[in-house]
Structures are given as structure tokens and as C-alpha cells.
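Q: I'm building a small set of examples for a reading group on sequence design. Run inverse folding on the following structure and report the sequence directly after it, with nothing in between.
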């Protein structure tokens, strides 16, 4: 089966899937999304992803399109049809189709789109040796907790990382680390795990929450507070979390080695415990 898509509940080959040019997702980036992946063919952490989709939609006065039970059965059906060893599942809801005008009509049927593609995990060697990052200004809007399809600042940030030959761009607002362009950021200093607090400045990552839970179980102290960029560079460990990156050590930031320049014990512990949970 080729990559498949599901538009408003109808499945077909991804290459045949179309949405109107008057869709507000296309015109305004007026929509929200989620990315899930499978482990051993099973969609992982479906409930927290659907809960966040609902929160994002609610924050934008957007209808979620399907009930949770319907989303779950569409996910199952997509996985049944695509039959990849592992799948990356993309869900998107946009406000729907209307003549272009900034205010939105009171009742508009949302457009829902899903895609199912083969998921290729990061190379084990990359995961083992860690990645590099750059730090750049966080120029995003004031509601980064909403997983909006408006990703221009993230797109530009990840492009900067790519052009710099590194994996991720770590975003810094008013001198403090918020998150990555596609991930949450964790820092270890003096044996304490630090990560930016939930709120309007970061996306509340599903993987972030799992890692915080693991840290509590493992007795690793956690502080949810913004870390200044200088402390990022002086950290003993840095790692990223996200659905596709899982737990990924960062060993250089802006060309400076983090401690010894190889993944530290807390990153390795979190990565191993996450693997146990998903494996
Ligand atoms: N922050 C941003 C900006 C992201 O795009 C992502 C990836 N969705 C994350 C954090 C990590 O979130 P999750 O663990 O839910 O994938």
C-alpha cells in the first residue's frame, strides 16, 4: 500500500488526497495538528495526544471534527490499511472552507486530514553519540502551548539548524531557553533536571510528561523553570524529547561541548527507561 491519507473520514492514496484552496488551513494556517507514532505496530500515547488536540482546538474555538472514539477508530483503520512496520501518524483539523476573510463564519464544517507514512526511527548510532544544536531567538507568537499548524517560526528555526549542519535549533526568549523547534529541552545541572514550565511559552510535550514521570520514579530531582542560555552552555547534560526524537542527548550547543561532549548518565538513564516503556 502506498502512503495513505484520510480526508474528512475517507481513506485513499495520499497522492490523490486534496483539500480546497479556500480551506482556512491553507489561507491562514487556521488549524491544529498532532503527530503520533507506533511501537510494534501500536499507536503510542493516543489519549494524551487526543487530549492535547482537543485543548488546542478549544483554544482556537475550533471544532475537533470527530469524537475521540472516532479518531481512535480512524487511526486503527489507517494502520490496518497502511501495514508498515512502524508508522508516523499525522492528524490535522482546520477550520474548513470559506471565502477568504479574517473573521470566521459561525458554523463551518472543519476539514480533518490524516496521513499514514512509514516511520524511520533515528539511527541508533546518532542516538548513542548524541546530536548538536544551535541556540536562536524564539520569535514565535504568545501561545506556543497550542499545537497550531502555523509553524513558520519553527520552520525557519529548523532550517537554520539544517543550514548550520546541526540537528536542532534551541529557542531562547528573553535570555531563557524555551524549547526546541520540534522538541522539548531538558538540562542537567548539579544532578538536577531542569525544563521550561508548562504555560504559553512551550508546547506541553507528551514525551516531556513521560520523562518527568520517569525522573520522579527514578528519584532524579526536577525543577520546572526557565534556564538562562548561559546555563544551557554550562550544563553537564542537555537532551531533547519528542514523539519522533524520543530522548535524544545533545552534546554540543553553538559549537561548545556540553561537559565531556558525550551523553551523560541522566540522559542515558532517561533514554533507557523510555525504551523500556515503549519497547
Ligand atoms: N515542542 C515542539 C515545538 C514540538 O513541535 C514538539 C513535537 N510535537 C514537541 C515540543 C514535543 O512534543 P511531543 O513529545 O508531544 O511530541
Amino acid at each position: 500500500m502506498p502512503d495513505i491519507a484520510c480526508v474528512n473520514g475517507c481513506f485513499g492514496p495520499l497522492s490523490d488526497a486534496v483539500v480546497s484552496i479556500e480551506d482556512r488551513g491553507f489561507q491562514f494556517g487556521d488549524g491544529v495538528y498532532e503527530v503520533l507514532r507506533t511501537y510494534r505496530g501500536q499507536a503510542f500515547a493516543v489519549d494524551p495526544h487526543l487530549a492535547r488536540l482537543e485543548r488546542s482546538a478549544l483554544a482556537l474555538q475550533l471544532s475537533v471534527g470527530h469524537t475521540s472514539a472516532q479518531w481512535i477508530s480512524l487511526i486503527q483503520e489507517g494502520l490496518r490499511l497502511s501495514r508498515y512496520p512502524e508508522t508516523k501518524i499525522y492528524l490535522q483539523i482546520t477550520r474548513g472552507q470559506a471565502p477568504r476573510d479574517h473573521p470566521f463564519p459561525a458554523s463551518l464544517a472543519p476539514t480533518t486530514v490524516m496521513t499514514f507514512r512509514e516511520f524511520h526511527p533515528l539511527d541508533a548510532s546518532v542516538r548513542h553519540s548524541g546530536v548538536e544544536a544551535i541556540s536562536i531567538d524564539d520569535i514565535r507568537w504568545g501561545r506556543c502551548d497550542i499545537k497550531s499548524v502555523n509553524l513558520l517560526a519553527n520552520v525557519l528555526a529548523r532550517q537554520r539548524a539544517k543550514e548550520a549542519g546541526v540537528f536542532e535549533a534551541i529557542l531562547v526568549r528573553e535570555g531563557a531557553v524555551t524549547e526546541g523547534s520540534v522538541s522539548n529541552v531538558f538540562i542537567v545541572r548539579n544532578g538536577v533536571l531542569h525544563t521550561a514550565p508548562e504555560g504559553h511559552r512551550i508546547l506541553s510535550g507528551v514525551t516531556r510528561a513521560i520523562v518527568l514521570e520517569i525522573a520522579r520514579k527514578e528519584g532524579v530531582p526536577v525543577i520546572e523553570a526557565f534556564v538562562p542560555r548561559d546555563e544551557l552552555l554550562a550544563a553537564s547534560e542537555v537532551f531533547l524529547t519528542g514523539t519522533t526524537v524520543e530522548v535524544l542527548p545533545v552534546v554540543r550547543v553553538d559549537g561548545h561541548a556540553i561537559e565531556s561532549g558525550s551523553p551523560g548518565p541522566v540522559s542515558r538513564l532517561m533514554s533507557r527507561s523510555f525504551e523500556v516503556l515503549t519497547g
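Residues 35, 154, 179, 182-184, 203, 205-208, 241-243 surround 4'-deoxy-4'-aminopyridoxal-5'-phosphate (CB under 6 Å).
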